[in-house]
Amino acid sequence: MVARSEAEQLVRTVPTEPYYAGGWDSSRGADTFDVIDPVTERRLATVVAAGAADVDGAVSFARSALDDGAWGRTDGTARGYMLNRLADLIEERTEVFATLESLDIGKPGFESRAIDLPQTVHAFRYFAGWADKVEGRSIPTSAYMGRPTHSYTVREPVGVVAAITPWNSPTMIGAWKIAPALAAGCAVVLKPPEDAPLTSLLLASLIEEAGFPAGAFSVLPGRGAVTGQLLIDHPGVDKISFTGSPETGYKVALAAAKGFRRTTLELGGKSPQIVYADADLDEAARGVGIGIFANQGEVCAAGSRILVARAVYDEFVELLVDQARNVKLGDPFDEGTTMGALINERHVDRVSRYIASGLDDGARLLVGGHRPERKGYFIEPTLFAEASNSMTIARQEIFGPVGTIIAFDSDEEAVALANDSDYALAATLWTCDVSRAHVVARRMKAGAVAINGWSPLDPRLPWGGFKLSGQGRELGWSGIEANTEEKAVTAVLSYPLPR
Ligand code: NAD
Q1: What is the pTM of this model?
Q2: CA nearest 473: which of 481, 484, 459, 463?
Q3: Which residues are within 8 A (CB) of 246 and not within 5 positions of it... i.e. 6 or more apart?
Q4: Tens digit of each residue's pLDDT (9 = 90 or more) over 289-339
């Protein structure tokens, strides 16, 4: 782990301008925005915001790189090499990326080193493997006016993909969008989050060295309401791949409806973690604790509704409270820190309002609930007990380290409570009964279910949800499907088949 002063020096090596058409562009940079360190509340960097001319320039250049340029002529094998090379370049700089994420987001570096960066590298390598395997099918079809036919399908890149990422894990979530789109042969224009743009800009600085031709990948930093909106409204964009809040997801869906452009929407969650009486309770408490406190709870799949069998309720609650008490809140650059700061003051206010609503609604505060008296956007790890599924803290996404514990009396009730949500992203089950685990997993309304382990990540698995959690899937083969159009080709043959 590097010292804070050393880490802050690193920021100076990161470019702070829009990157497109194969170069950095600060010339039109009338507008800038500051990136604030959530721990020190100090300015980390001032970044040039991409305006209308940049958005138009990036999308138009991406379009021509696909239609008439080198990128459109690059075959799958070459794309695979480039993606592998990019994965290598990121892996070699794991320490730099992880350090920048700690500064940008306020999260402990061990999380970036153990999860975000390995997952990022894995996603690029995994999709490098798909790049030369995007195949079609040969389909037997009926004769046409008595003449034989030969039919097959091909998968072609969707075109220019606008990728919009949130601040909680911008490197990894960025990779989940960029890697499948580039593997499929699309051109990607990335709009990183204004609160945490640094690692996306660092990624752009590696793209040329990885061998990608100009226009294959661009990064347009800027505010969501300005740069983001300009990008999703741009008619040259064929697909919008968005991860963020349902409110912004709705705007993306509206913009995409003009021209019926494709979307992948990865929105929020209010994911249940069900702890059955037969679970290994120590193991479950550890896992449930990670599920709600990892990344300061700023995780779309955070297991924020903790449903516990009444038979083990008291025992489990005690174990989980220990997990919360063991969290060491602090500066990511201090030895032993296990939880960092929330992203900004606005978000601290939002999470604090949710905590107040839990108290108002009569839930019992077991631990935490306060903003420590220190600099930085910190909130203590917080647990509420004796809550009901109708309380605001059980219904709305808090996106912070706040868990709501609800008791259940029967398997039926556990499933009903778990599924009684406006969201459907992820669910976790803790039980030693294999049959129950698989039956309940099938009954969960969620895009991903984990059994005896919270949210295992793997780029081979499809990722996404439904209801307010969004639509479409990224990762796995679904990631390739989501970035390609399937075309059917039928040839009517003039050469007769033998009778
Ligand atoms: P957000 O919706 O405010 O912002 C997400 C991104 O959209 C940012 O880059 C932002 O600049 C951009 N944006 C904002 N307004 C825009 C507009 N009008 N047009 C285009 N782009 C716009 O979300 P956030 O606060 O950054 O992230 C938190 C949310 O993201 C939470 O709801 C969380 O659950 C969700 N999230 C979901 C997943 C998932 O995989 N499902 C993963 C991480 C985060």
Answers
A1: 0.97
A2: 463
A3: 267, 268, 468, 469, 470
A4: 999 999 999 999 999 999 999 999 999 999 999 999 999 999 999 999 999
Q: Is 191 in the pocket of ligand 1 (CB under 6 A)?
A: yes
Q: Is 399 near ligand 1, meaning CB less than 6 Å away?
A: yes
Q: What is 4-267+469-486's CATH topology?
A: Aldehyde Dehydrogenase; Chain A, domain 1 (3.40.605)
Helix residue spans in 327-433 (DSSP H): 345-360, 392-395, 411-419
pLDDT for res 456: 81
Percentage above 90 pLDDT, the chain: 96
Ligand 1 centroid distance, CA of 248 (Å)? 6
Give the C-alpha separation, 102 to 92, whole Å: 18
**Residues 404-437 pLDDT 10s:** 999 999 999 999 999 999 999 999 999 999 999 9
Q: Is the dihedral of CA 112, 118, 119, 125 positive or negative?
A: positive
CATH fold of 272-451 reads Aldehyde Dehydrogenase; Chain A, domain 2 (3.40.309)
What's the Rg (C-alpha) of the chain?
A: 24
Atom 22 (ligand 1) nearest CA? 224
Asked whether the predicted pLDDT for residue 496 surpasses 90, the reply is no
Domain coordinates in residue numbering, the chain: 4-267+469-486, 272-451
165 lines ligand 1 (CB under 6 A): yes
Ligand 1 atom nearest 425 alpha carbon: 41
**Ligand 1 binding pocket includes 167 (Cβ within 6 Å):** yes
Taking the CA of residue 193 as reference, the ligand 1 atom at the shortest distance is 9
Q: Is 267 in the pocket of ligand 1 (CB under 6 A)?
A: yes
Report the catalytic residues: 266, 300
pLDDT tens-digit readout, 443-474: 999 999 999 998 789 999 999 999 999 999 99
Shortest-distance atom of ligand 1 to CA 167: 26
Q: Reduce the DSSP state of residue 161 to 3 states and report it.
A: strand
Amino acid, res. 174: G
Q: Give the SS3 label for residue 25.
A: coil
**Amino acid letter for position 117:** L
Q: What is the 3-state secondary structure (H, E, C) of 35-91?
A: EECCCCCCEEEEEECCCHHHHHHHHHHHHHHHHCCHHHHCCHHHHHHHHHHHHHHHH
166 CA to centre of ligand 1 in angstroms: 4
